Amino acid sequence: MSAKKNKRVYLSPPHLGDQEWEFIKDALDSNWIAPLGPHVDAFEKEIAAYVDIENAVALSSGTAALHLALKLCNIKPGDRVFCSDLTFVSCANVILYENAIPVFIDSDWESWTMCPKALQQAFDAAEKQNQLPKAVIVTDLYGQSADYDALTSICDHYNVPIIEDAAEAVGGVYKNKKCGNFGKMAVLSFNGNKIMTTSGGGMLLSNNSELIAKARFLSNQARDNAVHYEHSELGYNYRMSNILAALGRGQLQNLDTHIRACEKIFNKYMEELSNLPGIEFFPIADYGQPNYWLSVCLIDPVNAGIHKDEIIDLLEEKNIESRPVWKPMHLQPLYKDYQFFAVNEPDISTTVFKNGICLPSGVGLANDQQNQIISLIRSQYLN
Length: 383
Description:
By secondary structure, the protein is an alpha/beta fold. The chain has helices spanning 18-30, 38-51, 62-72, 90-97, 116-128, 148-157, 209-219, 242-253, 255-273, 301-304, 308-317, 348-355, 367-382; strands at 55-59, 80-84, 101-105, 135-139, 162-165, 173-174, 177-178, 185-189, 202-206, 279-281, 288-289, 295-299, 323-324, 340-341, 356-359.
């Protein structure tokens, strides 16, 4: 008879409190269970207030928000859009949705986010070819913002707008301003494994009320103002449901508590493992404060004597989920033939992917669970 498996430890599972149940019950009791409704309206206002931005529209996903942001930048077939290389694939996919051409920009070592020097290199090449991009999508990685002063200075010189992909970084801070505050528009994600969740959902933010009004219109199938269903342009079914918004309102009330819990988890990993040879943790840039969504480290196989895949396999044997860092876009089969700009050799995105591992970091990770993870990693060095 096989031994009973330990209860699964997930990478970043959702964490619910009492407030979420109260809001969801209110949504159900009111019979507002379709898209739109009072909780959607309130959630938009509360997120905007939290981030300290003028306007927000709740959507079905972060990907939907990114797509609408490109639409609002008037991206056309054949246009170029610069994009962070070390990111989730949706950032690149939305460029192809519009039949535009992605150009990928490497990271820097200070933050693992978009490298200003590589961005300048890409602009220099684009200017020579008379092919400047129509937008730059900058990803805030694993809860940490990019260096927006440096990136904005470059983009402003060419009059090219930034779209801030803050999908992973709600609650993070750059120079005393919350992530979601930068660029022409910003995107949040509330996917099920994020530090706050609506199960599935996202938000588009901007200080430009006309852009958000247009996004709201497009997200509701571009229905014109008429008694009957009238449509004069292409729209999308991208609106968030009232029930999911109710869940988000409860999650938002606990977001800062979630961030403190994840920071504590990250710091414990650092304290217990950073003295091992070949281990280097996600760098915290001196310009801000991340939300610590995931605890990420690099394991240099030469100095450590082990490969990160051995750690992933060892944890999986104990029913503990971990995973590699995002595979860079320029290494993806779908995107391998597109331009990629880097100033380091080998490029930083590839090095981070080859050596990076995301450790369990959920708000509800128990102390004994984290101790087990730490012990298993340390034991691998003794073998």
